[in-house]
Amino acid sequence: VPTPEQIRAAIARYVEAFPADRDGWVACFAEDATVEDPVGTEVRKGHAEIGEFWDFAHGLADSISMTPTGPVRVAAGQAAWPFQINTVIAGTAMVMDVIDVMTFDDEARITSMRAFWDMNEMRPAAAD
Amino acid sequence: VPTPEQIRAAIARYVEAFPADRDGWVACFAEDATVEDPVGTEVRKGHAEIGEFWDFAHGLADSISMTPTGPVRVAAGQAAWPFQINTVIAGTAMVMDVIDVMTFDDEARITSMRAFWDMNEMRPAAAD
Q1: Among all residues of chain B, which has the CA nearest to that of A122?
Q2: What's the rounded Cα separation, in Å, for the pair A45 and A36?
Q3: Interface pTM (ipTM) of the complex?
Q4: Are the beta carbons of B73 and A117 separated by less than 8 Å?
Q5: Residue range B17-32, pLDDT digits in tens
Q6: Is A110 exposed, middle or buried (0-12, 13-18, 19+ CB in 10 A)?
């Protein structure tokens, strides 16, 4: 089981890579990892499908990044953490609240990620 | 599947009941609900065991309450939400960050709750 420090470092790399480093972001996941984003939608599995998910998220937006909004909560080698998605779509800055729930392997690679968010809650960033 | 509004109202009742209304808090759960708090510990099942968990949490503390620290994220009738536990133990005010992940039945009663937190992160409230 990875330590809380290893998990926090893995999530920091994940946040840092997301905007522009597709390979670095995919490498945060174990090769057979699963992604359910948002919860309730089809589960993607493996680096190829996870890379396609990155392409999809970035294809929708002029830019997209994650801003943590509170501490990572670690329990028994798993984690949940709150953040905002900051994205520019058709020239308009938008923001949306998300919580990711993650499990990890012994090397602190993500083995599963489930993202809680609702597109209805996306709003112009100016409203914050 | 309950609506986001029903889920938010259920969580508001849960937060309001937790400090002092044992029966009201237990009634937020379906009769066969499960509680894993914190993640990685033994799963409690059913109103009797969930009530014993409430007794345990309150027995440790002079007082204990939950303060939401961000919006409830709802996806597909499930939810994740961030909060702080505010508790007074042996006369000292302490705080700890938690994220609860919940599923619900059609009446917006909680069918499962998993809580992400680490006792090592508990700290005097004055440090916040």
Answers
A1: B73
A2: 9
A3: 0.94
A4: yes
A5: 999 999 999 999 999 9
A6: buried
